[in-house]
Amino acid sequence: FLMERKTHVKINRKEVMLAKLRRSCSCTPKKLKNFVMDFLPVLRWLPKYQCKEYIWGDVMSGLVIGIILVPQAIAYSLLAGLKPIYSLYTSFFANIIYFLMGTSRHVSVGIFSLISLMVGQVVDRELLLAGFDLNDDAPSALGDGSLQNDSQPNTTAFNLTIAGMNAECGKECYAIGIATALTFVAGVYQVLMGIFRLGFVSMYLSESVLDGFATGASLTILTAQVKYLIGIKIPRSQGHGMLVITWINIFRNISQANLCDVITSAICIVVLVAAKELGDRYKHKLKFPLPTELVVIVVATLVSHYGKLNEVYASSVSGAIPTGFIPPKVPHFNLMLRVAVDALPLAIVSFVFTVSLSEMCAKKYAYTIRANQEMFAVGFCNIIPSFFHSFATSAALAKTLVKTSTGCQTQVSGVISAMVVLLVLLFLAPLFYSLQKCVLACIIIVSLRGALRKFRDVPARYHVNKVDTLVWVITMSASALISTEIGLLVGIVFSMLCIVVRTQRPRTALLGQIQDTSFYEDDLEYENLSPVPKVKIFRFEAPLYYANRNYFLKSLYRMTNLDPNLEAARRKKYEKKEKQHLKKLDHTTANGLGIGETNLQLVPKQIDFEVLVVDCSSISFLDTTGVNTLKEMLKDYKDLNISVLLACCNPSVIDSLKRGGYFGKDFGSMQEMLFYSIHNAVQFAKDQK
């Protein structure tokens, strides 16, 4: 039987687009109000804030995150190649802006190790190109809280032309100029992606690619911190192969290790790891996580200050951190052009991490987020702070998990965290002058535990899916051994190639009938299947398109043990030989000679099937090449008197076959060529026989 298709009303796409455009361009008070409310979601949920139910959880989680945020912000400044004050600015502004624009109630947006690393790599590269010394550990020129030119004699001055005026800019000024320009451009990309609804880009970053990228970047981060752990001064490697070059330099200079830094690092790592392990083990009994990082920083700062570790043992310290806010400044347009390409992977990674964490929290706590608004939120978390000497931000997994575990209900907790950072910015920042850099490096390395533990999951991952494991390994290796940006690109391209290869060489099977049923399955995978006499049932488990056309035909010929083209050629050869033999016999008889005793042994190959059923249930679409392949197959088998029946085609495939003329001009033979189940096709074949 042939099911009757529904008649769909043809949509005038031009009219639809014009109607959408008219609705978008119209401006009414109600539309304006909805636009503002959508752009600033805080205006929707804050008036409905249930103070008695939510305030305690929000205050507690905000205080805890703020306490964690301060030491992490100071530590991650090492990754970004910037002074700690800029990390504190970043943490403050990101929390305030996401409070206004974010749709997730639980995500913690702020400074993130991977983003800081990507910013730091661009900053270091541009500093080198500008002729600055990356290894300049001279005291900061920011002690007075202003962005004045570096006054150190070993600092290169760089001339910038801004609005027609020449301004000399020192190393620190130029570094933050690069970071803010990079951050501004990344934010613009994210806003443009939101306007043009390009959030689908995140679909091409699979879980394996993201995990591999995070693990590879974590290895790079760890490598970059080793020199601070042991207190050696080595060149800051740049470009491809940074990880290998850095380790070579570390081992070459290991004899210069600072004993004070080594002992301090060992103690801090033991304390931090032990506290983290205890926290993980007894987290169900603790109402909030232990503020271990803050305790370590306070104790280490006191010991360094009163023990005069910098003066006596030459231990490297953080230096002066100014209080208050530096006057805002527009990012330099000339620098934006230099970092425009670098900003694209930064924008994508920042957005993907934020949206994936937002969706995870929304699913867990049964509410919805708007991915497009999240794109705007994280975009403006980059654009606006870039005017206030801040660098790129993203949602951070570790802080988000802490936030949810400490009773967070809304983004009011983000405001509380921002107030804690503000307190440090206004009053407490100078107290961290004597904090050793090796302590900050310890905090960074211990925070990488989660990403580095992914190595333990490799056997389980391999057991679940070998291809995804290979994608993880390739992405991780490229991110660590080449560079983070190229590693991400390699991961995306390789994962796409894996999909292409899977469709180019998919599974194929000959099916047998499950006894006493109307179902058919792979004859090689299941026992006790009955072959259907004189019928071959072939399954192809992929779309049929130009890239796998040859594989489709080769698999079909191999599994049915019949190549119709070779068989047709063999039959033509047989007919030709037969004609020559008969002609020779006629000639011999005409000459009066006796007929020979020999008979010509040219017999065409015996074919063991008369009907070929193609199971199309796994063929999701056909392109022009796919339709032509099926038409050629139909013709070739028809020449051998073998019928070809198609079964389980979806409507898209049927429409492609109709348009391609597979069923003829009037579709008259369609009922005898197309069936809605394999069993129907087999029954038809038996009836015809």
UniProtKB/TrEMBL annotation:
<feature type="transmembrane region" description="Helical">
    <location>
        <begin position="208"/>
        <end position="230"/>
    </location>
</feature>
<keyword id="KW-0597">Phosphoprotein</keyword>
<keyword id="KW-0812">Transmembrane</keyword>
<dbReference type="Pfam" id="PF01740">
    <property type="entry name" value="STAS"/>
</dbReference>
<protein>
    <recommendedName>
        <fullName>Sulfate transporter</fullName>
    </recommendedName>
</protein>
<feature type="transmembrane region" description="Helical">
    <location>
        <begin position="250"/>
        <end position="274"/>
    </location>
</feature>
<keyword id="KW-1003">Cell membrane</keyword>
<feature type="transmembrane region" description="Helical">
    <location>
        <begin position="107"/>
        <end position="123"/>
    </location>
</feature>
<feature type="transmembrane region" description="Helical">
    <location>
        <begin position="410"/>
        <end position="428"/>
    </location>
</feature>
<keyword id="KW-0472">Membrane</keyword>
<dbReference type="InterPro" id="IPR002645">
    <property type="entry name" value="STAS_dom"/>
</dbReference>
<dbReference type="InterPro" id="IPR018045">
    <property type="entry name" value="S04_transporter_CS"/>
</dbReference>
<feature type="domain" description="STAS">
    <location>
        <begin position="525"/>
        <end position="685"/>
    </location>
</feature>
<comment type="similarity">
    <text>Belongs to the SLC26A/SulP transporter (TC 2.A.53) family.</text>
</comment>
<keyword id="KW-0813">Transport</keyword>
<keyword id="KW-1133">Transmembrane helix</keyword>
<dbReference type="InterPro" id="IPR011547">
    <property type="entry name" value="SLC26A/SulP_dom"/>
</dbReference>
<feature type="transmembrane region" description="Helical">
    <location>
        <begin position="376"/>
        <end position="398"/>
    </location>
</feature>
<feature type="transmembrane region" description="Helical">
    <location>
        <begin position="54"/>
        <end position="78"/>
    </location>
</feature>
<dbReference type="InterPro" id="IPR036513">
    <property type="entry name" value="STAS_dom_sf"/>
</dbReference>
<dbReference type="GO" id="GO:0008271">
    <property type="term" value="F:secondary active sulfate transmembrane transporter activity"/>
</dbReference>
<dbReference type="Pfam" id="PF00916">
    <property type="entry name" value="Sulfate_transp"/>
</dbReference>
<dbReference type="InterPro" id="IPR001902">
    <property type="entry name" value="SLC26A/SulP_fam"/>
</dbReference>
<feature type="transmembrane region" description="Helical">
    <location>
        <begin position="335"/>
        <end position="355"/>
    </location>
</feature>
<keyword id="KW-0325">Glycoprotein</keyword>
<feature type="transmembrane region" description="Helical">
    <location>
        <begin position="472"/>
        <end position="501"/>
    </location>
</feature>
<feature type="transmembrane region" description="Helical">
    <location>
        <begin position="174"/>
        <end position="196"/>
    </location>
</feature>
<dbReference type="GO" id="GO:0016324">
    <property type="term" value="C:apical plasma membrane"/>
</dbReference>
